[in-house]
Amino acid sequence: MAASNTSPADTNDHLVLSDDPEHPANHICTLCRNFYSQGWVGGTGGGTSIKRGPHIFIAPSGVQKELMQPHNIFVLEHANRSYLRKPLDLKPSACTPLFLAAFDRGAGCCIHTHSQWAVLVTLLVEQEARANGQDPKGKCFEIEKIEQIKGIPKGRTKQGMLGFFDKLVVPIIENTAHEEDLTQSLEEAMEKYPDAYAILVRRHGV
C-alpha cells in the first residue's frame, strides 16, 4: 500500500462543515461578503478570524472575499498554536499573529479591513498633529458628542455602553511593510488602551 502524503490537518473537514449559519466557518464567509459589498475590502485584502472554545477559525490569504467558502477556512488550536485544519492549496492570513495577540487578551472575533474611511481618519489625525507642530506617532482618533458611539461598549473593564457625552478613543499605530510586523506595536497599543475595541493602522486600515 502506498503511503499517503496527507496529514490530519489536511482532512479535518468536520471542523468547518456545518448547517448552522452561526458556525464560525460559515459566519466568516458571510462577514467577508458583507465587507466586500460595503467596500471595506477589495479582492483578497483584509482578514477575519473567530475564536470558539479552544479553536480559532481563520480566513485564508489569496481568496476573493466575496467568493470565500467554508472549506477555505483554517482552524488553529489556540493553546499550542498548531493547525488542526490547513487547506493544502492556500496560505493562512498574514494577519494571524495579530489575531492571536488579540485572542490572547480575550477577544472573540477579529476583523481587519482596508476601509477607506479608516485610512482617511488616520491621515486627518496626522495632518492635525503636523499642523500643530506635533509628532503624529502615538496620537489617537478621538471623538465625542456624536450619536453613533452609543453602540460601542465602554470597554472590557467597564460596564455599559458609551454615551453621547463620552469620548471614544481609538489608538493609531504606524504601518509596516508586512502585516505580521505590526504585532509588537499592536500589542503595545492594546496594553496601553485595554478598553479599545479597535486599533487603526495609519495608511492601511483597521
From TrEMBL:
<dbReference type="InterPro" id="IPR017714">
    <property type="entry name" value="MethylthioRu-1-P_deHdtase_MtnB"/>
</dbReference>
<dbReference type="InterPro" id="IPR036409">
    <property type="entry name" value="Aldolase_II/adducin_N_sf"/>
</dbReference>
<protein>
    <submittedName>
        <fullName>Methylthioribulose-1-phosphate dehydratase</fullName>
    </submittedName>
</protein>
<keyword id="KW-0479">Metal-binding</keyword>
<dbReference type="Pfam" id="PF00596">
    <property type="entry name" value="Aldolase_II"/>
</dbReference>
<dbReference type="GO" id="GO:0046570">
    <property type="term" value="F:methylthioribulose 1-phosphate dehydratase activity"/>
</dbReference>
<feature type="domain" description="Class II aldolase/adducin N-terminal">
    <location>
        <begin position="26"/>
        <end position="206"/>
    </location>
</feature>
<dbReference type="GO" id="GO:0005737">
    <property type="term" value="C:cytoplasm"/>
</dbReference>
<keyword id="KW-0456">Lyase</keyword>
<dbReference type="InterPro" id="IPR001303">
    <property type="entry name" value="Aldolase_II/adducin_N"/>
</dbReference>
<keyword id="KW-0028">Amino-acid biosynthesis</keyword>
<keyword id="KW-0862">Zinc</keyword>
<keyword id="KW-0486">Methionine biosynthesis</keyword>
<dbReference type="GO" id="GO:0046872">
    <property type="term" value="F:metal ion binding"/>
</dbReference>
<dbReference type="GO" id="GO:0019509">
    <property type="term" value="P:L-methionine salvage from methylthioadenosine"/>
</dbReference>
